[in-house]
Amino acid sequence: MEVSVLIILCIAAFAAGFVDAIVGGGGLIQTPVTLIVMPHLPVSTVIGTLKIPAFSGTSFAAAQYLRKVRMDWKLLLVMMVLAVPSAYVGSLLLTRVSNDFMKPLLLVVLSLLAIYTYAKKNFGQQADKSHSSRQQLLYAVIISVVVGFYDGFIGPGTGSFFVLAFISLLGFDFLQASANAKMVNLATNFGSICLFVLKGKIVWAIALPMAISNALGGFIGARLAVNRGNTFIRIFFLMVVIGTLIRFAYDVFCKG
After folding, report:
1. Which of 229, 244, 249, 256 is buried most deeply by CB count within 10 Å?
2. Is residue 21 a contact partner of residue 155, using CB atoms and an 8 Å limit?
3. CA 148 – CA 143 distance, rounded (Å)
4. 66-94 per-position pLDDT tens digit
5. CA-based angle 86:178:48, to the nearest 5?
6. C-alpha distances in angstroms, 226 versus 100, 162, 165?
7. What are the contacts of 220-224 at 24+ separation with CB within 8 A?
């Protein structure tokens, strides 16, 4: 592999880690870049390889959030335990079937999400304490299973979906949602990594340099999110959702 190609991949990984640390969606950057510069690799190998930098960046981002933001460990432990097998099953299914049929549905969901987030100015600006403990636990189980499976099966935008779920279903504000989502995202990445390691789908010569770059981006992004607060994260969230929307629209209308 040429040094110039590895540099491009590391730059993409840094940008992905930075964006992912704030609101998720880093896969929208490093996945297409890797597919473009490494066209000879099977898609499953690319996705498996990129789980390593994703896990690295999320770990460093989570460490920054842990120092500044209160975590709901009761919910997190339940969600992380459920997220690992959900992502594993999703990745297992990915190795056997195409996920293209999901993209039109995601296009509609993301369109509605972008409109709602833009129109509702106070969305995620403060925590909602009206949820009972039983409701939160039920929603936590659903989020872990559904989004965890999605991360293993499809991937892009997982962090953003976690943030959305934490806000709309669990009543967190943007900063709390971003922080807690990182912990569950760690679990989904770990579940997928277990599958891809067993299948021999990871190219370590690419994964390790990208992991270092992604971790640096995650470290900087998380510190910025903590310092700038909810308004900044909301704007960034909307930008990433629109980016995800454009990506899926391209896949549906231009590639299909």
Report:
1. 244
2. no
3. 7
4. 988 888 898 999 999 999 999 999 989 87
5. 40
6. 36, 18, 20
7. 220/18, 220/21, 221/17, 221/18, 221/19, 221/20, 221/21, 221/22, 221/61, 222/21, 222/22, 222/60, 222/61, 222/62, 222/63, 222/64, 222/65, 222/182, 223/64, 224/22
Those residues with Cβ within 8 angstroms of residue 145's Cβ, 6 or more apart along the chain or in another chain: 82, 83, 86
Name residue, tokens 């099953």: 89
Q: Is the pTM value of this prediction over 0.85?
A: no
Write the pLDDT tens digit of every residue in 102-156: 556 656 666 666 665 556 555 445 556 666 788 889 999 999 999 999 888 877 6
- What does the alpha-carbon distance between residue 88 and residue 222 come to, in Å, rounded to a whole number? 27
Residue with tokens 């990871």: 202
Give the span between the Cα atoms of 91 and 137, in whole angstroms: 25
Rounded distance between C-alpha atoms, residue 54 and residue 211, angstroms:
7
Close Cβ partners of 239 (under 8 Å, ≥ 6 residues apart): none
- CB count, 10 Å around CB of 241? 26
